[in-house]
Design brief:
The protein is 33% helix and 20% strand. It is of the alpha/beta class and 395 residues long.
């Protein structure tokens, strides 16, 4: 008997050691307790009642990724401008709109011709452009000046970004480079600004779309949420926790954070034992498919007043050479085909392609108790208005 039990015990011990190692090397100790507390929330999403998939792809779009030359970077951008309409222009969501792609363009890599090209895609109705930033050992004063200047350049020079209906303020969505929002890296790298949430809010950021960042140590305890965080300038990572949108009044001096899904994928296991992390990433070895879609829905990133709306914010690095064949190829085409087929066979399943701005608008609509349709709320608070573009502003 001992010869039967001993190998089993050895395998069990190895499995436990591997899991413990994974917990600490991949930062699971940060968010695993909250994940376990939310176990009951993640039941299967069944379509006996209407399901509205609100899908946004937040692309950390870096044409110079991998220290690419200017010529290669320009070629990468032109590939997107040429291929996106060709591949996806004939697809339509439940509102009759084509797929939307939000390009979070890095301000430290500013190249006017790239933004002009992406603005063409926007004008054709295929997406939008927002702000991305990598920085290190920065100061709040310098960050504030850069954001204000870059915001004006994108709006005035390239005709990008949006305005707030109520006061006409130019606003932007944000993704932090290297995931280190609000100086959240444990070693203080890749940021340096402890009051970054305040700086973002005060310069017109309507929402941050950085998270989730797992397996990075910058990941927050709060997961699968849309919430408000209030900055504590005395310390980093003020967004580690916050107030769920739709659960009471918005706190003063708060910034909205829209997170993507973060779960374990038990159907995709390392060594057949350890479940891999599902973090909403789309890249060369993580193609979107129906099994992943079901996980994203199970994350239940929602606003209480609209239980039929499922906010799914995915992220990608679409300009990277390794990812372009997937992002602009068969896997993504099949994903859009799958969405259309699912909606056709299931009358309760509806899907809506959104830009980051539109996702924010829908969050605000749901927060206000909006009972109308998705299509009617796309411009609920922030609008894109045509205006004359000046070519005299430079970065």
């Amino acid at each position: 008997m001992i010869f039967v039990i001993l190998p089993i015990l050895v395998l069990l011990a190895i499995a436990i050691l591997l899991m413990v190692r994974a917990i600490f090397t991949r930062g699971l100790q940060i968010w695993l307790p909250q994940y376990l507390r939310e176990t009951g929330k993640r039941c299967d999403v069944r379509s006996q009642s209407p399901i509205h998939l609100l899908l946004c792809i937040a692309d950390h779009f870096e044409p110079r990724h991998g220290n690419a030359s200017r010529e290669l970077a320009a070629e990468r951008v032109q590939t997107w401008v040429r291929e996106y309409p060709r591949l996806f222009g004939h697809f339509r969501d439940s509102d009759g709109r084509p797929p939307q792609h939000t390009f979070f363009y890095p301000m430290e890599m500013y190249e006017p011709s790239h933004l002009d090209a992406l603005a063409e895609l926007r004008q054709q109705g295929f997406g939008d452009v927002e702000i991305h930033l990598h920085h290190d050992r920065d100061t709040s004063e310098n960050l504030r000046q850069r954001l204000e200047h870059y915001k004006q350049v994108l709006f005035t020079r390239h005709g990008l970004l949006s305005r707030r209906k109520i006061d006409g303020e130019i606003v932007y969505g944000f993704v932090h480079g290297d995931w280190a929002l609000d100086n959240s890296h444990p070693q203080g790298r890749c940021c340096g600004v402890n009051n970054e949430l305040d700086v973002l809010r005060e310069t017109g950021c309507y929402a941050d779309f950085t998270l989730p960042s797992a397996p990075s140590a910058t990941q927050t305890r709060k997961i699968n949420s849309i919430y408000y965080a209030v900055d504590d300038p005395a310390g980093p990572k003020s967004h580690d926790w916050g107030t769920d949108v739709g659960c009471g009044l918005q706190p003063e001096r708060s910034l909205m954070l829209i997170q993507g899904p973060l779960l374990f994928n038990w159907r995709n296991r390392k060594l057949g034992i350890i479940p891999r992390i599902e973090n909403g990433c789309i890249q060369h070895n993580q193609a979107p498919n129906e099994q992943r879609l079901n996980l994203w829905l199970r994350a239940r990133v929602q606003i209480p007043a609209r239980p039929d709306w499922y906010f799914v914010k995915l992220h990608a690095h679409g300009a990277a050479a390794a990812n372009q064949p997937m992002m602009l190829g068969g896997p993504m085409v099949r994903f859009h085909e799958m969405l259309a087929a699912r909606a056709k066979r299931d009358p309760n399943f509806h899907f809506h392609y959104l830009t980051a701005r539109e996702m924010y608008n829908l969050v605000r609509a749901a927060e206000s108790g909006w009972a109308g349709t998705v299509e009617q709320a796309r411009n609920f608070e922030l609008i894109c208005t045509p205006h004359s573009i000046s070519r005299t502003v430079t970065c």
